[in-house]
Amino acid sequence: MSKVTEIFASNVFNDCVMKERLPKATYKALKKTIEMGTALAPDVADVVAAAMRDWAVEKGATHFTHWFQPMTGITAEKHDAFISPTSDGKIILEFSGKELIKGEPDASSFPSGGLRATFEARGYTAWDCTSPAFIKDDSLCIPTAFCSYHGEALDKKTPLLRSMEALNKQALRVLKALGNTTTTKVTTTVGPEQEYFLIDKAMYDARKDLILTGRTLFGAKPSKGQELEDHYFGSLKQRISDYMKELDEELWKLGILAKTKHNEVAPAQHELAPIFSTTNISTDHNQLTMELMKKVAGKHGLVCLLHEKPFAGVNGSGKHNNWSMGTDDGVNLLEPGNSPHENLQFLLFLTSVIKAVDEYSDLLRLSAANAGNDHRLGANEAPPAIISIFLGDQLTDILDQIENGPATSSKLASDLTIGVTTLPPLPKDATDRNRTSPFAFTGNKFEFRMTPSSASISGPNFVLNTIVAEALSEVADRLEKATDVEEEVKVLLTELVKTHKKVVFNGNGYSDEWVEEAAKRGLPNIKSTVESTKALLSEKNQAVLEKHGVLTKVESESRYEITLEGYNKTINIEALTTLEIAKRQILPSVIKYATSLASSINTITAVGIGADVSVQTELLKEVSSLTASLNKNIALLEEVVAKADNFDGDIYDLGMIYRYEVFEQMNTLREVADTLETIVDKEFWPLPTYSDMLFNV
Ligand code: ADP
Ligand code: MG
């Protein structure tokens, strides 16, 4: 392998390349835009474009593309060659500032949620110079935002960028009110830990459900699951290790700070975590990571599954969104320091986050909702669908003190002694972990653990940035008016703790008692994606998104439509695939097996020696009865699918039909098929089983 330091970011037009290749004045102007958000002059863009083209062509690129993130949740790209004809029948390679700054892909085939009438096809992509351009597959990729003809956001990036500006503005107000005169910028930072499954390509190819829906719609529980807990952090098998090595290398070339890799809890499950970066770049990088995870798998005869729940009864995948706020002078605003009770700035930012999460928990819940995650949230492997915050002993103790007046002490962590004199004493963290909490403080950041594995992290982060910006703006309003700021901070802290401590919960989030307790505290428990979408219609939520310039009311409403539409289509595809597999693969196979049992009974009986055929007879009866039940459930599923298909009412009501009728009937049908799988001769079973898929790499 080439030296890591040499390959790192070798395909990225980053600061170092810009400094080297751009004229000084151009570099300065561009840096100012990137760092201070000032508008970019067109002549600067021309110079940058030419430098980018030369750099890309030297690296073998032939095309460029505006790389954007439509509401499908995946990325989109349309490649144009650099070629331009000359009068003598040859070509030159061109790339103008105009082409760098603006693109015009046809927007009509991307989800717009009613933002665009059918006849309005125009959409624009606009260069996001805060995320560096890169080369992928011989194309120069320009990260861009995507909007409609009238400027409404049609993508995941635009609201994220808007929310970062909002948080910057409000955080600076608070810092200034606290007497800080040096900080000029506050950015949110994110490190997403990405979970994924790897299975053998041949197994995948034999499963229509995996190909069409990303998850198994059938499959009995294997005799071995994850109960031995022998996969978590287990040593890597050679094929997996080779895969991870190549993946790291590909990610490093794109400047992605891939850092940690390990086997996860479920068999065939793994994780990759990067070092955190600013939210926008981290979001782009996570999209690229997911893309490369799939692509590199192909080279190893593997398939990477990013679905939240590819296998029933086996842990699914999530993404832990580690989030914090940092200043341009290097301060992590969520760093408690050695005596957090005296660190009023930290406490103010901390309680602002608590307030934000408490007041807008429905928006956060929505930001983690998709059809795949519905299998996890509230089930016994992922945080419950109830949003609460884990703070740990030390901070909870400080908040308790604040509730009744100023805090006077911080519980300190001791050293840990292991009882072996040759082992060094270990400094202990002030607080233990709690893996059952959806929103956990982990030392100097919050870990939002509900995020779905397959989705863009833009949603959770633009919601977090916006709601925290709102909490900070209310704090700033108070501090800016106060005559004695320190006194006002203390009053504010007590108020914030009193009002919002109900969202703090340090206990076991997986327990039934918590569900009851949360209901008593008035915390919402939003069951599925369908119900969660209502958060986008509430006046309070629309107002906060609009106030901070993140989404207009119309944009919120369009996202409501897009989320429901996506959900309904997903369940519809799953139901149709369930029917196809049940009718054309399982039913015929089971009938063949029953016929073979009947033949066996006939043949043996015909020998005329009175041999016992009771086993075959019993089995035939059982198989026949389950087959009849399967057939009945196929008919019932067809009925509800037709009902949904013919329904012409409200999209929300249609969602409820998909969730509570179609989805439920899919599960009932599956149960019968899975029981059949456990008794039908493997030779006859048409699908690779769970143990075939989970234990064969
Ligand atoms: P664990 O979750 O097991 O504690 P780490 O401590 O390595 O693992 O952190 C997990 C992720 O959190 C990593 O991606 C890391 O870069 C990220 N992280 C660390 N500090 C911050 C921060 N200030 N802001 C955002 N993410 C952070
Ligand atoms: Mg973690």
UniProtKB/TrEMBL annotation:
Protein species of origin: Clostridium intestinale URNW
Residue ranges occupied by any GS catalytic domain in the UniProt entry: 156-586
Signal peptide: none
Family statement drawn from the similarity comment of this UniProt entry: Belongs to the glutamine synthetase family.
Gene3D superfamilies: 1.20.120.1560, Glutamine synthetase/guanido kinase, catalytic domain
GO biological process, one term: glutamine biosynthetic process
Domain GS beta-grasp residues, every copy: 62-151
Source taxonomy: Bacteria, Bacillati, Bacillota, Clostridia, Eubacteriales
Pfam families on file: Gln-synt_C, Gln-synt_C-ter, GSIII_N
Name of protein: Glutamine synthetase
GO MF term list: glutamine synthetase activity
